[in-house]
Structure formats: structure tokens, C-alpha cells
Design brief:
Number of strands: 7
Radius of gyration: 17 Å
Distance between the termini: 47 Å
Shape: globular
Order of helices and strands: HHHEHEEHEHEHEE
Number of domains: 2
CATH superfamily of the largest domain: Vaccinia Virus protein VP39
Largest sheet: 7 strands, mixed
Structural class: alpha/beta
Strand content: 15-25%
Number of helices: 7
Length: 211
């Protein structure tokens, strides 16, 4: 793409962003990001967050999903948020700053979880978008594979995974992989997801447990 093309695309994105209904709502409501409304809609439909749960939030920064999840646990349960980026502290959330692919960070997570394991893993992770599908899709599905791998290591039998996907190459294979490990897999496209975006959320429940 030419420099002028990128500039035009960037200006369009900025205009859409600042005119976005959910960006405006998040500022009015005092939330950390517009992404919170995606989780709100999924929660209203599927009731995946319940008091007493242990929830792992991957790629959590700036913290919108954790911020909402706290309200749904009602002071009963735990939320552990991970990101390589720093996050402002929030009440009721245990934050790990680091890359969970690294042994030290993973060990810290497992130490926090303890023997009880997690009930739910939520992941809104996405790569930095280059605009080139041949680059972006493999990056995106690499992150989803990481989320699934982590879920298999931390979830208790019957647990769930909510993960952001992108429709395109890799989607069918990943969906098939989810169905091998979970008893039920459904797709959700929240209204807060931009219409032209390929993003969609897979909700996998009924984790079968480690072989």
C-alpha cells in the first residue's frame, strides 16, 4: 500500500473511532475501553460469568473485560489478568505483567491459580494489524492457539473459553480444534464489533479435561 493509501486509511479509522457509538459510550460510562460492551452483550446472552468463578483474562490491557467481570462475580471469586503491557490496578483483579509464554510468568500464573484451576479463560487478544491478510491472519491465529493451549493447562473439567477469532483462513481448523476439547462451541458477533471487522468470538464450554 502506498504512503498516501495508508494515510487515507488511517484518517478513516481515526474518524470512525472518534465517532464510534461505543467509544463515546465508554467515555460517558467511565469504562477503560469500548471492548467492554462486547463482553457485556455475550454475558447477557450466555451468562458465562458467575459468582465464585476463577477467571483468567488474557491480553487484558487496558482492562475493560476484567473491569466488567469483577461486577459479575459479585465479590465472590477471582480474576487474574495477564498482559505484556502495564495495566492500572483495579479492585478485585490480580494483575500479572508479562508474556505467559515465558516459564517464569506461566509459573506465576499457576502459583496464583493453585490446585483448584480456573473456570473460564477469556481472550480478546489481537495482533497489531498491518492491513495485509497474509500476515495478519497467521498472527491472529497464533494468538488463538496460545489461548487454547493455555486454557487446556489451566481449566478444570467443564470449564470454558471465550476467544476472539477472525473469519478467514484458519477459522475452520481452529473451530474443529475447539470441538475436540469442548462439548459445545458457538459463535457470537456482538453489536459492538465493527460491522466491517472480521472479528467474531468463539464460546467453547464443557472442557473435557486433559487426556
Amino acid at each position: 500500500m502506498s504512503k498516501s493509501g495508508r494515510s487515507k486509511s488511517s484518517k478513516q479509522w481515526l474518524r470512525e473511532h472518534f465517532e464510534d457509538e461505543y467509544v463515546l459510550r465508554s467515555k460517558q460510562d467511565g469504562y477503560r475501553s469500548r471492548a467492554i460492551y462486547k463482553l457485556i452483550e455475550i454475558q447477557q446472552k450466555d451468562r458465562i460469568l458467575k459468582p465464585g468463578m476463577t477467571v483468567i483474562d488474557l491480553g487484558a490491557a487496558p482492562g475493560g473485560w476484567s473491569e466488567y467481570a469483577v461486577t459479575q462475580l459479585g465479590g465472590k471469586g477471582r480474576i487474574i489478568a495477564l498482559d505484556i503491557l502495564p495495566m492500572e490496578p483495579m479492585a478485585g483483579v490480580e494483575i500479572i505483567e508479562g508474556d505467559f509464554r515465558e516459564d517464569e510468568v506461566f509459573a506465576q500464573l499457576m502459583s496464583l491459580i493453585g490446585d483448584d484451576r480456573a473456570d473460564l479463560v477469556i481472550s480478546d487478544m489481537a495482533p497489531n494489524i498491518s492491513g495485509m491478510g497474509v500476515v495478519d491472519m497467521p498472527r491472529a491465529y497464533y494468538l488463538t492457539e496460545l489461548a487454547l493451549d493455555l486454557a487446556q493447562q489451566v481449566l478444570k473439567p467443564g470449564g470454558g473459553l471465550l476467544v476472539k477469532l477472525f473469519q478467514g483462513e484458519g477459522f475452520d481448523a481452529y473451530n474443529k480444534s475447539l470441538k475436540q476439547h469442548f462439548s459445545r462451541v458457538v459463535m457470537r458477533k456482538p453489536k459492538a464489533s465493527r460491522t466491517r471487522s472480521r472479528e467474531i468470538y468463539a464460546l467453547a464450554t464443557g472442557y473435557a479435561g486433559q487426556p
